[in-house]
Amino acid sequence: MNFTEPSFLYFAPAVFLLWQLCRRRESWQVALLLTASLLFYGFHQPKLLPILLLYCVVDWLVGLGLTRSRRPRVVLTLGVGFNLGLLAFYKYTPLVLATAAWLLNQAGLRSPFAPPAAGDWPIPFGISFYAFTGVAYMVDVFRRNATAETSLSRYALSAVFFPHLVAGPILRADEFLAHLRPGRTPRAPLAPAEAGWLLARGFFKKMVLADRISAAVDPFFAHVGDPTTAGVWALPYVWLYALQIYFDFSAYTDIARGLGLLFGYRWPDNFNWPYLAESVAEFWRRWHITLSRFLRDYLYIPLGGSRRGWWRTNLNLMLTMLLGGLWHGASWSFLLWGGLHGVFLIVHRFWLLCPWRDRLARLTGPAGFLWRGACIALTFHAVCLAWCFFRLPALPDSLACVAKWFVFNSDKVWVGGAADASLWAALAGYGLLAALAGRAQRWLETRPRPFPAPFLRGFVWTFSLMLLLLAVLLSPGGTAPAFIYFQF
Questions:
Q1: How far is it, in rounded angstroms, from Cα 462 to Cα 475?
Q2: Using an 8 Å Cβ cutoff, are 263 and 189 in contact?
Q3: Please, what sign has the CA dihedral across residues 407, 246, 125, 88?
Q4: Domain ranges (residues) in the chain
Q5: Which of 252, 261, 304, 363 is most buried as measured by Cβ atoms within 10 A of its Cβ?
């Protein structure tokens, strides 16, 4: 089920109303939310439910085994191997078969295994997210950072709760499972006004901004290597795609966090103005934050982190980003996307050794403003360069897109969807509104109760309802595209 499809607009209120009726009975509450989550996941493809349930049962048993076995490291290895092995089977089998067939063909041999045609090998949506959630839980129990859950239903709910199931955020045990323990299950919504604001903001980002950008840029990317786009300047389309994937994914996070608050759970944000980062290292501290910390804590640090010398640190960074790229999709272009970010991070580490860096970082006034602006622009375009390979799985198309950054017809600089002035006006308006909202929030945080609390709550609710109404009125209409990260 998709957050923006009509069925969800009936599903979510119904689940919330039933939860209100049984929220004082923990066992009923757990049973209701678990049943609703399974219905949410299997609504369109019930045949995928056994895979999800198998993950839950195995990860729960491994968690118990880690506390009772004399060889917990072996148990952990088996558990992580199962999670990653099943993920690899469903996600990467077509890629492996296609690559093997190509290599054998180059050697003049015929592959005994034909790669499946597009659409013949359905990949369970969200499998990467719930596989990583299980890995994080098992490793935390092994490290004794979390207590193994003895109840299968409570563990299963922590793994498959419908707001975060398909696209995160990737939660640790102390961020969700710990709040499902007996006696700790929430009995009332948490910060309802904030929840309403997050939901309204999320639907506006998705329906008005991300979906409108999708309609504007998809025709160009679909024909980026065709003669029909010859001479068209690609860079505005890449800028728009960078904004699309940000609005699309952050919208999902906003809606997920808002739903979590309505059911009494607060989860971490996934984004912090990532395109204002002054380096790619800072970008990854602001973009998909829960994945970044997962890669850091469960991959980069176990590889050795920065503890084994300069060159080993660079190697660990590259391996982490390569595997992080491959996690996103079954295409070598995703590996290249991750590799580019690995190169950017290594270059940044070299830059940290430059004697000019500290002097430039201390600049103030107009000179400091210009320097920081140049750093943001350079970082943004480095990220956009990598987005070309993320958006276009076929390498010739990715390279054609990058070439059209620099080779274009002056008459086709602003054409097609990129020339939609109303779209750019909507983006500029949202950016100004978001900046003003952020400044207002900081102003309120530094002043003790400048307005009565009922007035602030009323203002937030009114503004949220207006934003939600605008989302409905300004959406492109038709069938809403699924969230981009549903495919991962």
A1: 20
A2: yes
A3: positive
A4: 6-188, 192-269+417-488, 272-413
A5: 252
Question: Is there a catalytic annotation at residue 348?
Answer: no
User: Quick one: how far is CA 283 from the chain centroid?
Assistant: 14
Upstream peptide bond of 6 is cis (omega within 30 degrees of 0): no
Query: What is the value of pTM for the model shown?
Result: 0.92
- CA–chain centroid gap for 25, Å, is 33
Picking from 151, 297, 77, 181, the residue whose alpha carbon sits closest to that of residue 69 is 77
CA atoms within 13 A on the CB side of 73: 0
pLDDT at 267: 95
Rg (CA), the chain: 24
* DSSP output for 150-176: --HHHHHHHHH-TTTTTT-----GGGT
Low-confidence ranges of the chain (pLDDT < 50): none
Of 176, 383, 163, 197, residue with least CA distance to 284: 383
At 76 the pLDDT is: 96
Q: Name every residue whose Cβ is closer than 8 Å to that of residue 88 and which is 6 or more positions away in sequence.
A: none
pLDDT at 118: 61
What is the C-alpha separation between 126 and 3, in angstroms, rounded? Answer: 14
Nearest by Cα to 283 from 333, 366, 340 = 340
Residue 372: C-alpha distances to residues 271, 274, 350, 375, 385 (Å): 20, 14, 19, 5, 20
In the numeric block, the tokens 């999709």 are attached to 329
Taking each helix axis from N to C terminus, what angle separates 211-222 and 235-262, rounded to the nearest 10 degrees?
140
Q: What is the pLDDT of residue 478?
A: 66
Q: What phi and psi, each to the nearest 5 degrees, are found at residue 287?
A: -105, 130
Q: In this structure, what is the dihedral angle of CA atoms 322, 255, 125, 96, given to the nearest 10 degrees?
A: -10
- Answer whether 390's CB lies under 8 Å from 246's CB: no
Number of Cβ within a 10 Å radius of residue 101: 17
CA 470 to chain centre: 25
Tokens for 371, please give them. 């320097």
Q: Is 482 left (phi over 0), alpha (psi -120 to 50) or beta?
A: beta
From 328, 341, 348, 381, active-site residue: 328
